[in-house]
Design brief:
single chain, 241 residues, mainly beta, Immunoglobulin-like, 2 domains, six-stranded antiparallel beta sheet, five-stranded mixed beta sheet, 2 helices, 22 strands, elongated, disordered N terminus, disordered C terminus
Length: 241
């Protein structure tokens, strides 16, 4: 187990000491820096870790009493604002989704002294706190409330509590019936892999050689238009038929 030393792990104590010893010769000004990442999949029960990607291109704003400052998260998920006047600042990340900090802090408002710094590690969760609609995974089980949800990014996913009740096939997919959208197949991560699966014998069309039929509906001036596709489970791609 790692021990904490000051504001960092004990194994990084040498880096902390090096920083402290360099302060007398450091340039004047305060620094705000940190990271920003986004979860790419919903949370799953009994599973540790979730895939993340840098929240690159998004703006970090540092609001002071007299002036505001801005930085853009780079392609590696890092941001830095240096040379700030010492003082009282509020740090925020502009993004769509629930934003949290790690380690958890009670506030993103901080006082920074001259030659001092403050670090914030932001994590964006587009899958948090979204409303859900009913679904059916098995007619014997009946309707499941708060089942199908939509992330702030537009992705449709299945609530973690529902995932453990699903029966996944050899392709790692399980059928779910949306009371609004019809049959769909979802992956073990909870992400909807394909929608618009036609009904066959009171259930979804099944896979044959890794392929399943999909019906896409669009609305045009002349009425509804239907187009058929084949969805390939192994490569998660579609080909028109």
């Amino acid at each position: 187990m790692r021990r904490r030393y000051g504001t960092n792990f004990a194994e990084y104590a040498a880096d902390d000491l090096k920083y402290l010893r360099s302060l007398p010769n450091a340039p004047h000004g305060s620094t705000v820096f940190g990271t920003a990442f986004r979860f790419t999949e919903p949370e799953r029960l009994h599973t540790k870790g979730r895939r993340i990607v840098p929240e690159s291109g998004h703006k970090v704003t540092v609001r002071g009493l007299a002036q505001n400052y801005e930085s853009i998260v780079d392609e590696k998920g890092n941001f830095t604002l240096g040379g700030l006047p010492p003082g009282h600042y509020t740090v925020s990340l502009e993004s769509n989704g629930e934003i949290s900090t790690f380690p958890a802090v009670r506030s993103t408002t901080v006082d920074i002294a001259d030659k001092g710094c403050a670090r914030f590690n932001f994590t964006v969760d587009p899958f948090a706190e979204s409303a859900g609609e009913k679904c059916i995974s098995d007619f014997e089980r009946g309707e499941i409330s708060n089942c199908i949800r939509q992330a702030t990014t537009g992705e449709i996913f299945i609530a973690p509590l529902v995932l453990k009740e699903l029966d996944f096939d050899s392709y790692g997919l399980a059928p779910v019936l949306s009371l609004k959208e019809g049959w769909m197949y979802v992956s073990r991560s909870g992400i909807v892999a394909v929608q618009g699966v036609p009904t066959m014998d009171n259930g979804p069309d099944s896979f044959h050689d890794g392929l399943v039929r999909v019906i896409q509906t669009s609305y045009q001036a002349g009425g509804r238009k239907f187009q058929a596709y084949l969805f390939q489970a192994k490569s998660s791609s579609t080909s028109s038929t």
